Amino acid sequence: MVTQIPIILASNSPRRKELLERAGYTFTVMPSDCDEATDIRFPKDMVMELAGRKAENVYKKVCTDRAGTEAETQPFIVIGSDTVVALNGRILGKPVDYDDAYNTLNSLSGQTHNVYTGVSIMYYDGEKCRTKTFYENTEVTFYPMTHEEIVGYLATGDPFDKAGSYGIQTQGGLFVKGIKGSYDNVVGLPLSRLYHELNEMLYGQ
Q1: Rounded to 5 degrees, what are φ and ψ at 113?
Q2: Per-residue confidence (pLDDT) for residue 205, from 0 to 100
């Protein structure tokens, strides 16, 4: 079942918002403003750490806003998430400029890479908070890309706000030969895993 407990998405990502809407969740958006600098270099550890920071940052804001009001003891859920692309263990984040995006796409051409999304759920039941953090890994294989294809894709502007410099749900998906694992995870939020982890947390199922 899809919970009716108020959910707060600690992200301003339109893609994560679309995924939660598609799943039928009722939620509000409150972007995190936490420090995302980290020395962690293992992708799965990095995304879980950053997802946890984002969720905790927003959780504290909500608790502060509710303090001394009737809402102070009302349950709510915060979901934080972070996604990175990794090629041969090297993390490929959002591109810093055109050349970075070009080089990233060129390195992904004809190769299999991994997309890691970390998710942190913080559930306040009216008395105490429980936290669950996990990650999902999807393998993505690209067709070989020509110089012209990369330049043409960059001209759309699509790659510049995305980890790995591509969006599988947009024109970037034209270069995907196959995936192993969750498609939604590549978009930015592993919906089915989130659904089951959340239900286990709330209802023990």
Answers
A1: -125, 175
A2: 62
2 inside domain: no
pLDDT at 75: 93
Domain range holding 111? Answer: 7-203
**Catalytic residue (choose from 35, 82, 97, 158):** 82
Catalytic annotation present for 158: no
Q: Report how many domains make up the chain.
A: 1
Indicate which CATH number applies to the domain containing 164. Answer: 3.90.950.10
CA separation for the pair 75, 87 (Å, rounded): 40
How far lies 96's CA from each of 54, 101, 104, 161, 200, in Å?
A: 21, 7, 11, 9, 39
Q: Does residue 183 belong to any structural domain of this protein?
A: yes
Amino acid at 14: P
* CA angle centred on 132, ends 16 and 137, rounded to 5°: 55
Q: pLDDT under 50 in the chain at which residues?
A: none
Q: How much is the pLDDT for 40? A: 84
pTM: 0.91
